[in-house]
Amino acid sequence: MTEEPTQTTEICEDDAHWKRGLFTLFFLFCFALAEAALWMAALVQFFWMLFRGAPNDRLRRFGVGLAGWLATTVRYLSADTTEKPFPFTEWPAVDRSRTP
Question: Domain count of the chain?
Fold first, then answer.
């Protein structure tokens, strides 16, 4: 009798890919929420400018910070970087001295 070679399936000991997959799902969900926040901020800013004649500085700074977060999130999701965006790092800095 000849002995058949036994095939074993090895489970990947390194679960980094699974963790990245879970973080990807988390950040895709957060990205969708951020998109909704962008819609709201843009609409409020539009009406603010329509009735007040000038942009709301707080909304402008929020938009700049949100744009930075979206950019870092896209870099993470597209595997350009392994650094996770906020809340795992600081919120993107906003230049408060810049005038609209």
Answer: 1
